[in-house]
Amino acid sequence: MKEETMPRGPVTRRTFLGRTAATAGVLAASGLERVMGQPQAGGDPDDRQRIERAIPAAAPAAPLRPRKLLIFDLNVNYGGHASIPTANTAFTLMGKKTGAFETVVSRDPAVFEPASLRQFDAVFFNNTVGNCFEDPALRQSLIEFVYSGGGLMGVHGTSVAFTKWPGAIEDWPEFGIMLGARGANHKANNEHVFIKLDDPTHPVNQVFGGQDFDYRDEFFRVHEPYSRHRVRVLMSIDTARTDMQQQPSYGAVVRADDDYALAWVRQYGRGRVFYCTIAHHPSVFWDPRMLRFYLAATQFALGDLPAPTTPSAKLTPAVRAQERLGWRLNLVAAEPGESTFFETVDKASRLGMLYVGGSNRQKISRDIPKKFHDRLTAEEMQQIRLKLDAASVRLLTYHVDAMPSDSAGQLKIVEFARKMGIEAVVAPGTRIAPEGKLPQIVSLDEAARAQGIHSLLDETRRYEQGPVIFCVESGDDELERTIEAFDKAVAKPT
């Protein structure tokens, strides 16, 4: 990615409107001028024809409801990739032709105001390089949107969005954590790479038919926080077949672990996240195969294409079986008053578990002695999000002693659960799902074990429809044996 500069400084909500007039001249000169917030008709007429010919006739999934995708393409202190208007056109036409979604294209940071953002199902950061906006309220709005169940997509330069450019100096670490990686080092912009499908049967990868392939583009070598313990890798560079000595090189292009992921999905809270580096050249967006790939990714982010997100490093036979069944094994504190929430998270991580539950009787941690309740500050909730991500564990359930009798108090708890990505609030005689279908909750307590884990799971298979959360207590003397028995039973051939 060659560094270019534009006559724009860091953009905030307060400064954006004052710069619009000056920016318009730059946009016109680059061929990107349009009304803010309106879909771009765009680009070269020949390119548009190529896109129209390449767009698939139908989407891989039927939309559950009308969907709306926000495409945000602001670059700060960088001239922007030539593929940006092509991608805008391709996604707009693809959504319209297939009926899968409607697009709104914007570079106005004000579109991330909560009242504006809630009209969308997903946000696509289209090759956004530099510090897109610095307003803490807008950043918090984006985090809450994703964590509570919205979709986030990024391509190529998005891996250095919310950094100070040039230099990619980190300015918002949580965005990189949410996306799954940072970095933009690369070789030539027409590097020839053999691509390995790491997850050939994944729904987003279906277009490739399980076949590896080769491609030419500018392929970023990303760095931390990238980890297969955090993301589900869809494709990567096949280092055995690719000439890894191709020149030139821009920045550090060698990873010690020889792991060069090119595309992945992940879950951040309840949010669905997708990233792919293959998006440097405009031609990517009139390649029929890549358009079908991006259409599937978009439907995943929007919430219409179910697809697993368990990190690649945690895919055991038992976990794969749970993905097929829609089951999760969830660790909850036996005595919430005796152990902190972070201790429960640490224990789940040590045991290789993927999910935990919280309680309003539980302190957050030794350093945050406050109870886990809806009066936590934004900073405290951020610390919880980062702790969960570092442990590669998701928060599924939230236990309260009793639901408030008044509607305002109930709504407060539900809103807290939504912000924390919680799927089910559990109180004596009451369960509430902040969004979506209420999962069935089954306790793997002593009584359940007496019935026999195999017997219990067979019964659940027969009678339960939809997601199921199996809860096991952290203080159980039989905890490790219960987990082992559960894994063996769930992974058995059926």
What does this structure look like?
The protein has 494 residues and is α/β, with parallel strands linked by helices. The strands form four sheets. A nine-stranded mixed sheet has the order 2-1-3-4-14-13-11-8-9. A seven-stranded mixed sheet has the order 19-18-17-16-15-21-20. It has a three-stranded antiparallel sheet with strand order 10-7-12. Helix 9 packs parallel to helix 10. It folds into two domains: 13-302, 3-Layer(aba) Sandwich (Rossmann fold); 316-490, TIM Barrel. Helix 3 (83-98) links the parallel strand 1 and strand 2. It has helices at residues 13-30, 45-54, 83-98, 114-117, 136-147, 173-179, 288-302, 317-325, 341-350, 378-391, 407-419, 446-451, 453-463, 479-490, and strands at 68-72, 102-106, 122-126, 151-155, 163-164, 169-170, 182-187, 191-197, 213-217, 221-223, 232-237, 249-250, 261-268, 271-276, 327-332, 355-359, 394-399, 424-427, 430-432, 440-443, 468-473.
What keyword list fits this structure?
Rossmann fold, 32% helix, 494 residues, 2 domains, 9-stranded mixed β-sheet, 21 strands, alpha/beta
